[in-house]
Amino acid sequence: MRIFSGIRASGDKTLGNYSGGFRQYVATQEQGDAFFCVVDSHSITTPFEPEVLHESTLSVAAWLFATGLDPERSTVFVQSHVGAHAEAAWLLGAVTSFGELRRMTQFKERSEEQDFVSAGLFNYPVLMAGDILLYGTDIVPIGDDQRQHVELARNIAERFNGRFGETFKVPDGVFPEEGARIKNLQEPERLMSTTRGAPQGVVRMIDPPDVVRKKFKAAVTDSGSEVRHDPEEKAGISNLIEIMAVVSRTTIADVESRYDGQGYGQFKGEVGDAVVELLEPLQKRYEELRSDEGELRRLLGIGADKAREASAPTLETMYERMGFVRP
Ligand code: TYM
Asked: Whose CA is nearest to atom 11 of ligand 1?
């Protein structure tokens, strides 16, 4: 089975990225032939600084290994190192409609927040479809916020296959049962993200223990007292229950029964402790990897070679089926 997922080289990675991203990557690498990509080309679609892009690319790569991707087993690489991604995006633009792209929720949200809305932001889902389709991907482990983009990739694949002949496998998104949409601790109706929402409600994977504990202690909850999962009525506490289920590798029902009859204060403190316990060893590995840039670049070089080899035949077929004269 072919597995592919991507993660942007921007901002500090959050507990949300851990839950919907990193954690799933490690679990799925056991199931087949897995490709994980630091999507630096996606990162230039919103305002960015060159030095930050540079740093973030290396930093996200380090997090991928620190959270458990095994370079012997998984192919970990940087998107811009494999030219096929940019080329595939251009070709797939021919079978993607303006209307489809305009309907993308993420585009609508992000474009409202910016003065300068780049063409890249609009085309972003086409680049993402190319990422996935180039590798004959069966499954795409992602969080809930990327669901619509994978749906679009499926439509693009089907349209291309219908128009030019069977070329792409139609991929399926896979989402974690718990924690597919971790919310901001201060604004539990919002996705946890570094790009918007109260910063003190965003738990970053690099946050030191005291900062993590403080953020959980200050988490917004409702005026009740029952530790019960009810996202409609009790958004804050439900989010904390999901986080606890994710970090202690258990289920929502188990967390509910464990904290049955206990107050919110106690519960919030214990979720903070559990997150610290999860993050501490990951941060240590991350720092080690970051301190040896040569080794990190060596691993990414091996990944890029493997990714180039795996994607080249698909790109060639795309050109041929579309009628391009090849050199
Ligand atoms: P990105 O970089 O925003 O996020 C990486 C992964 O983290 C998940 N995620 C979350 N999961 C749960 N709760 C949250 N609060 C949360 N925030 C983020 C995301 O769903 C994602 O799985 N467009 C993609 C990157 C991409 C990609 C791809 C993904 C480019 N090409 C091909 C899959 C396949 C993105 O911006 O993810």
From this structure: 20
Report the separation in Å between the CA atom of 294 and the middle of ligand 1, taken as the mean of its atom positions. Answer: 27
Q: How far apart are CA 62 and CA 65, in angstroms?
A: 5
Q: Is the CB of 125 under 6 A from ligand 1?
A: no
Query: Which residue blocks in the chain are alpha helix, DSSP H?
Result: 15-17, 23-28, 50-66, 84-92, 98-102, 105-113, 119-133, 147-164, 209-217, 235-247, 252-258, 264-290, 293-321
Domains of the chain: 2-175+293-321 (3.40.50.620), 199-287 (1.10.240.10)
pTM for this model (two decimals) = 0.96
pLDDT in tens, 68-115: 999 999 999 999 999 999 999 999 999 999 999 999 999 999 999 889
Which atom of ligand 1 is least distant from the CA of 149?
Answer: 23
Nearest CA owner, ligand 1 atom 15: 16
CA 300 to centroid of ligand 1, rounded, Å: 20
Tokens 């597919």 correspond to 180
Q: How does pLDDT run across 4-32, given as a tens digit for each residue?
A: 999 999 879 999 999 999 999 999 999 99
Q: How confident is the model at residue 126 (pLDDT cuts 50, 70, 90)?
A: very high
Is the pLDDT reported for residue 327 higher than 80?
A: yes
**Computed from CA positions of residues 150, 156, 162, 168, in that sequence, does the dihedral angle turn out positive or negative?**
negative
DSSP state of 211: H
